[in-house]
Amino acid sequence: MEENQLNPLKALDEWEDDLLLRYPDPEQIAEGKETKDYRQYDDPARDTVKEFYRLNHTYQTYDFVMEKRADYLRFNRKEMTVWEAFDFLNQLVDDSDPDTDLSQFQHLLQTSEAIRQDGHPDWMVLTGLMHDMGKVLCLFGEPQWAVVGDTFPVGCAYSPKIVYPEFFSANQDYNNPRYNTKLGVYTAGCGLRNVHMSWGHDEYVYQMMKDYLPEPALYMLRYHSFYAWHREGEYEYLLDDHDREMLKWVHLFNPYDLYSKNPVAPDWEKLRAYYEALVKKYLPEKLKF
Ligand SMILES: [Fe+2]
Ligand SMILES: [Fe+2]
Question: Per-residue confidence of the chain (289 residues) as pLDDT tens digits?
């Protein structure tokens, strides 16, 4: 496949813009205003998102996820300080719209600042800062459909509430009796920790951070793109009590990710000292990628 066939999104956050159509900001609806001209459903930009999900749903098989885990979870590619890692991540520049799109780092900083302004614990601020670090997978050569987009369990039947569910019929697992029953390879109530999710930036950053942040933070990282669970309430039969307890933290985090985008970039020079101390408090000198 050619590069543009693998990567239909012009910009990585086209997927996130599309999320705002599916899950608009309730505060802006209540106030009767929208600060951004959200794309309409019939916008041609939606076709690229649709193609993105066609690829994602076709190629995110159980075997694919196992392969990516075996490779990336060795963390043998690179070692970087957090600050070097942000510079690295910022190489993901969207050529389509360089003036209006904020860098990856600025999205992270807007998320963490919105969390901080609401007085949440500092580990949650750090979670906001780090939550999309897994997008470096794109810089390691992964196609967009293996990095961003809604995530979902593999190895069992797909929820019809996952976006564009019709595309799952092209997935090789769809007709495999090992994987296509309600529980598939799992047992009822086994807990999400025993469930393999489609591969992407959530699982990767969770694995990177799992020794350093408290449990609610790890749920925020690991499941922030699992909309079929945290927004649609699906997959109840896979959950255990711990998941049900942690869901409130995933809910708490989601609006900061979705609704904190602002065209005005935060003033990093004013914020630097706070974040340097925060990173030092929780994270090691270098992170492994
Ligand atoms: Fe994300
Ligand atoms: Fe994000």
Answer: 566 778 999 888 889 889 999 999 988 888 775 545 544 556 777 889 999 999 999 999 999 999 999 999 999 999 999 999 999 999 987 555 444 568 899 999 999 999 999 999 999 999 999 999 999 999 999 999 999 999 999 999 999 999 999 999 999 999 999 999 999 999 999 999 999 999 999 999 999 999 999 999 999 999 999 999 999 999 999 999 999 999 999 999 999 999 998 888 999 999 999 999 999 999 999 999 9
Distance 288 CA to ligand 1 centre (A): 19
Question: Nearest ligand to the C-alpha of residue 200?
Answer: 1
Q: List, in sequence order, the alpha helices (H) in 210-289.
A: 215-223, 227-230, 241-259, 268-282
Q: Where are the domains of the chain?
A: 3-288
Which residue type sits at 38? Y
Cα(46) to ligand 2 centroid in Å equals: 19
Amino acid, single-letter form, for residue 210:
K
pTM of the model: 0.94
Q: CB atoms < 10 A from the CB of 106, how many?
A: 18
79, 289 contact by CB (below 8 A): yes
Contact status, residue 198 vs residue 278, Cβ threshold 8 Å: no
